[in-house]
# Entry
Amino acid sequence: MSPITDQADTAIYGRITYQIMENYWPTAADKPTATKHDREHSHWYNNVTKIVLSRTLYQSDKRNTIIVGDNVVQKINAIKQEQGKNILMFGSPSAAQTLMQLNLVDEYWLFVNPIILGSGIPFFAKLKDSIQLKLATTNVFSSGVIGVHYTRESIR
# Structure
Protein backbone atom coordinates (compact mmCIF):
# COMPACT_ATOMS: atom_id res chain seq x y z
CA MET A 1 0.00 0.00 0.00
CA SER A 2 1.45 3.35 -1.00
CA PRO A 3 1.21 6.26 1.41
CA ILE A 4 -2.06 8.14 1.27
CA THR A 5 -0.05 11.27 0.54
CA ASP A 6 0.87 9.84 -2.89
CA GLN A 7 -2.77 10.33 -3.85
CA ALA A 8 -3.00 13.97 -2.72
CA ASP A 9 -1.56 17.29 -3.80
CA THR A 10 -3.45 19.51 -1.35
CA ALA A 11 -3.70 19.47 2.45
CA ILE A 12 -6.18 21.27 4.68
CA TYR A 13 -5.21 22.30 8.19
CA GLY A 14 -6.69 24.29 11.00
CA ARG A 15 -4.50 27.17 12.15
CA ILE A 16 -2.96 25.41 15.14
CA THR A 17 -2.09 22.22 13.27
CA TYR A 18 -0.72 24.27 10.36
CA GLN A 19 1.56 26.23 12.67
CA ILE A 20 2.81 23.00 14.26
CA MET A 21 3.46 21.50 10.82
CA GLU A 22 5.23 24.68 9.61
CA ASN A 23 7.57 24.49 12.58
CA TYR A 24 8.73 20.99 11.69
CA TRP A 25 8.11 19.65 8.17
CA PRO A 26 9.73 22.27 5.90
CA THR A 27 13.20 21.38 7.23
CA ALA A 28 12.63 17.87 8.63
CA ALA A 29 14.49 16.25 5.72
CA ASP A 30 17.59 18.33 6.44
CA LYS A 31 18.11 16.91 9.92
CA PRO A 32 20.95 14.36 10.21
CA THR A 33 18.61 11.98 12.06
CA ALA A 34 15.80 12.24 9.49
CA THR A 35 14.16 8.92 8.74
CA LYS A 36 13.09 7.86 5.27
CA HIS A 37 9.52 8.76 6.26
CA ASP A 38 10.61 12.20 7.47
CA ARG A 39 12.48 12.92 4.22
CA GLU A 40 9.55 11.76 2.06
CA HIS A 41 6.91 13.59 4.08
CA SER A 42 8.99 16.76 4.21
CA HIS A 43 9.32 16.69 0.42
CA TRP A 44 5.56 16.12 0.06
CA TYR A 45 4.71 18.86 2.56
CA ASN A 46 6.95 21.39 0.82
CA ASN A 47 5.33 20.74 -2.55
CA VAL A 48 1.62 20.47 -1.80
CA THR A 49 -0.85 23.31 -1.67
CA LYS A 50 -1.75 24.01 1.94
CA ILE A 51 -5.19 25.38 2.78
CA VAL A 52 -5.48 26.83 6.27
CA LEU A 53 -8.91 27.33 7.81
CA SER A 54 -8.53 30.26 10.20
CA ARG A 55 -10.41 33.22 11.56
CA THR A 56 -7.21 34.81 12.90
CA LEU A 57 -4.73 34.42 10.03
CA TYR A 58 -5.56 36.58 7.07
CA GLN A 59 -2.69 36.01 4.67
CA SER A 60 0.45 33.99 4.33
CA ASP A 61 3.78 34.75 2.73
CA LYS A 62 4.49 31.02 2.49
CA ARG A 63 4.63 29.37 -0.93
CA ASN A 64 1.61 27.19 -1.82
CA THR A 65 -0.43 28.39 1.16
CA ILE A 66 -4.00 29.67 1.00
CA ILE A 67 -5.82 31.09 4.03
CA VAL A 68 -9.60 30.56 4.11
CA GLY A 69 -11.46 32.49 6.78
CA ASP A 70 -14.86 33.11 5.27
CA ASN A 71 -17.08 31.71 2.52
CA VAL A 72 -15.68 28.27 3.39
CA VAL A 73 -18.25 26.29 1.37
CA GLN A 74 -17.71 28.31 -1.81
CA LYS A 75 -13.92 28.38 -1.51
CA ILE A 76 -13.48 24.69 -0.67
CA ASN A 77 -15.95 23.60 -3.37
CA ALA A 78 -14.05 25.74 -5.89
CA ILE A 79 -10.76 24.11 -4.87
CA LYS A 80 -12.36 20.65 -5.10
CA GLN A 81 -13.33 21.40 -8.73
CA GLU A 82 -9.77 22.23 -9.76
CA GLN A 83 -7.62 19.71 -11.62
CA GLY A 84 -5.39 17.62 -9.43
CA LYS A 85 -5.26 14.84 -6.93
CA ASN A 86 -7.10 14.42 -3.63
CA ILE A 87 -7.24 16.83 -0.72
CA LEU A 88 -6.18 15.49 2.70
CA MET A 89 -6.71 16.78 6.20
CA PHE A 90 -4.44 15.84 9.08
CA GLY A 91 -5.52 16.39 12.66
CA SER A 92 -7.24 19.75 13.06
CA PRO A 93 -10.35 18.49 14.88
CA SER A 94 -12.09 21.89 15.00
CA ALA A 95 -11.50 22.50 11.28
CA ALA A 96 -12.59 18.93 10.49
CA GLN A 97 -15.80 19.48 12.46
CA THR A 98 -16.48 22.61 10.43
CA LEU A 99 -15.96 20.75 7.13
CA MET A 100 -18.18 17.86 8.27
CA GLN A 101 -20.94 20.25 9.36
CA LEU A 102 -20.77 21.96 5.97
CA ASN A 103 -20.97 18.57 4.16
CA LEU A 104 -17.57 19.07 2.50
CA VAL A 105 -15.93 15.74 3.45
CA ASP A 106 -16.19 13.03 0.79
CA GLU A 107 -14.07 10.31 2.40
CA TYR A 108 -12.97 9.46 5.91
CA TRP A 109 -9.68 7.73 6.73
CA LEU A 110 -9.79 6.95 10.43
CA PHE A 111 -6.83 5.47 12.25
CA VAL A 112 -7.35 3.73 15.56
CA ASN A 113 -4.14 3.80 17.58
CA PRO A 114 -3.37 1.35 20.39
CA ILE A 115 -3.45 4.01 23.10
CA ILE A 116 -6.30 5.35 25.20
CA LEU A 117 -6.38 9.08 25.84
CA GLY A 118 -8.47 10.60 28.61
CA SER A 119 -8.81 14.05 27.11
CA GLY A 120 -8.73 16.00 23.89
CA ILE A 121 -11.17 17.42 21.39
CA PRO A 122 -13.91 14.91 20.51
CA PHE A 123 -13.83 14.45 16.74
CA PHE A 124 -17.55 14.01 16.01
CA ALA A 125 -18.99 15.98 18.95
CA LYS A 126 -20.50 18.89 17.02
CA LEU A 127 -22.30 16.96 14.27
CA LYS A 128 -26.02 17.70 14.21
CA ASP A 129 -27.00 15.19 11.55
CA SER A 130 -25.82 11.67 10.89
CA ILE A 131 -23.57 11.00 7.92
CA GLN A 132 -24.12 7.72 6.10
CA LEU A 133 -20.83 6.02 5.25
CA LYS A 134 -19.84 2.98 3.21
CA LEU A 135 -16.81 0.90 4.16
CA ALA A 136 -14.22 0.99 1.38
CA THR A 137 -11.12 -0.66 2.89
CA THR A 138 -9.47 -1.64 6.15
CA ASN A 139 -5.81 -2.16 7.01
CA VAL A 140 -4.11 -3.51 10.08
CA PHE A 141 -0.57 -2.23 10.42
CA SER A 142 2.27 -4.02 12.21
CA SER A 143 2.29 -1.20 14.79
CA GLY A 144 -1.19 -2.24 15.90
CA VAL A 145 -2.83 0.74 14.21
CA ILE A 146 -6.04 -0.05 12.34
CA GLY A 147 -6.87 2.10 9.31
CA VAL A 148 -10.48 2.32 8.16
CA HIS A 149 -11.46 4.06 4.92
CA TYR A 150 -15.09 5.10 4.42
CA THR A 151 -16.77 6.96 1.59
CA ARG A 152 -19.84 9.12 2.05
CA GLU A 153 -22.99 7.37 0.79
CA SER A 154 -24.36 10.31 -1.13
CA ILE A 155 -22.06 13.07 -2.27
CA ARG A 156 -23.80 16.28 -3.28
